[in-house]
Amino acid sequence: MFKINNLTYQYDKTRKALDNVSMDFNKGNIIGIIGSNGSGKSTLFNNLMGILKSTEGEILYNGEQIKYDKKSLYNLRKEVGIVFQDPEKQIFYSMVYDDIAFALRNIGIDEKTIKERIHTALEAVNGLQFIDRPVHNLSFGQKKRVAIASVVAMENKLVLLDEPTAGLDPISTRAIVDIIKGLNKRGVKIVISSHDMNLIYEICDYVYVLNQGVLINEGTREEVFINEEKIDEAGLELPWLVKLHKNMGRLPSLLLLCGKLTEMLPQMGQIPKPHIILHLFQQINHHIVVILAFPVDIWHINPHIRLVKTILHKNLYFLIGICHIEIGCNRT
Questions:
Q1: Is the pLDDT of residue 326 over 90?
Q2: How far is 292 from 298, CA to CA, in rounded Å?
Q3: Which pLDDT belongs to residue 263?
Q4: Long-range CB pairs of 307-313, under 8 A, 24+ apart, other chains included
Q5: Hey, which bits of 69-202 come out as E strands?
Q6: I want to staple 210 with a disulfide (CB 3.0 to 4.6 A). Which of 15, 35, 101, 160 is the partner?
Q7: Are strands 214-219 and 206-211 parallel, antiparallel or unpaired?
Q8: CA dihedral in degrees (195, 201, 203, 208; nearest 10)?
Q9: Which helix (H) or strand (E) holds 312?
C-alpha cells in the first residue's frame, strides 16, 4: 500500500499545493481524505498515480518508491485505479461495453475474460442494464457508476475515489455508498477524497484532514470528528450524526418538549402516535430536527412535517424530519 513521506508539490515557485504531507494507507481499509475545495486532495491523488511528480519527498508503494518511467507507471496502474470527480474525464468510448473493455484490451486480456469481467464489474455497481447502452444516454450518476465499473474490471487492489458523490442526488449517492462498501467487502482498499462529511463519517475508518495543502489532523473517524476546532480550521462542518450526539442533553426542558410533540403529532393528519422519540437534535426558531419511531410507515404526511428519511428496523419506521411546530421552549 501507499506510504507518503514529507510530500511537497508546487505548481509554481510561489504556491505549494501540498506542503510536507505524510500519510500511511495501511492505517485503514476505507480511508478518507477531507478538506475544502483547494485543500490539495485532487493534487495528492494525481501525485499517487504518477500523473504529477512531487517537488520534494517520496511516495512508496508496497515499500518501493514509485518511478515515473512508462513500464513502472503501467505496473502501478494495474494495481491502483482512480475514479475522477468528473466521469467525462475517463469515459472515451460511445458505448458502455467498449469503454470498460478499453483498458482490459490494452493490457492484453482475451475477449472471453473481458466479457466476464465487464459483467462482474457492472453487477458490482448495479449497472448491468447499461452494458449495451450509449454513454451519452446515461445520467451523471450512471456515468459515475460506469467509471467505477471500469476500475472494478481491472481488479485493482486499491481504488482512489475523487469526490465520488459530488453532484449526485440522494438516490445516486446511496448507490455509490453501497458500491464502495461492496468493493471493500471484496478486499479492495478504498481511499476517498471528499468534503462530504456525512459520507466520510458513514464509511471511513481512518481520516486525514488537509487545509491549504497542509495535513492538520489525522486519526480514526471518532478521533478526527471529536476535534471540532480542526474541522472548522479546514473549512468543513461536522457530520449530522456528530452534531446530533453533541447536542443531546443540552436542554433540560427537552423531555417536556418531546412529550408535547408526541401528543401533537397524532392530531396532524391522522399521523399515528410515535412509539419512541429517540433524540431531539435542535430547536431553532420553531424548527425542530427530531428522530421518531413509528409502528407504521408514513407516506401521506401532514405539511407541518417535512419527511427526510424513513428506515425500517425491527418493525419500526424511524423518521428523521424537521417539524415546524409552534412550541415554546427556552434554552437553558
A1: no
A2: 11
A3: 52
A4: none
A5: 80-83, 158-162, 189-194
A6: 35
A7: antiparallel
A8: 60
A9: strand 305-313
Strand partners, 306: 322
**pTM for the predicted model, two decimal places:** 0.74
Distance CA 79, CA 214 (A): 27
Task: Record the cell numbers describing residue 221, joined without a space.
Answer: 473517524
DSSP assignment of 238-275, as one string? Answer: --HHHHHHHHTTS-TTHHHHHHHHHHHGGGSSSPPPPS
In whole angstroms, give the CA distance from residue 103 to residue 117: 12
Compute the distance between CA of residue 259 and CA of residue 237 in angstroms, rounded to an integer: 31
Which grid cell sits at 278?
429517540
Amino acid of residue 260: K
* Grid cell listed for 226: 471529536
Proportion of the chain in helix, strand, coil states, percent, rounded to 5: 40, 30, 35
Q: What is the pLDDT of residue 268?
A: 44
Q: Are the C-beta atoms of 180 and 190 separated by less than 8 Å?
A: yes
Rounded Cα distance between 210 and 230, Å, is 10
